[in-house]
Amino acid sequence: MEIRWKTYNYINHPFGDLVWHLFWGIIVGIFIVYSIVFHDFWGLVISAIALIFFFHPLFYEPRILDITLGENGFYINNNFYSWEKFYAFEIFTNSYRKYIFLFPKNFSFGLHFPLEEFFVSEQEIKEFVSRYLKEVQGEVPLSDRLYRFFYI
User: Which pLDDT belongs to residue 59?
Assistant: First the structure.
């Protein structure tokens, strides 16, 4: 058995917001001035790279994710992840969308991706993933919740 759906990695992001540009422009500007005043070459290089990452539109274009859950693991686009690398899962929401968060067994970052209830129900996902991982509640790290607060 296999469950499959497609979704966008995010549907709204703060990059188009004026406050976003002002905040990061000021932060990066401070680092550039600091690097010039204190002759910090690497600080200047990192600040220039940060300018590209924070302001180039290529980095905030939404992408379509093709998600497939199977018996051996799951695919996100063409990247395979085995169920054996994770020990638990949680479905959480940010008031707009629901996400599946997978907790890794080793010291690593968790993995989360959007759940499109238009194509597949939350209950169906819970029943399927519960075969391989245990379900937990309220354990998604604050950093991931904040990330999905800004990147809806």
Answer: 67
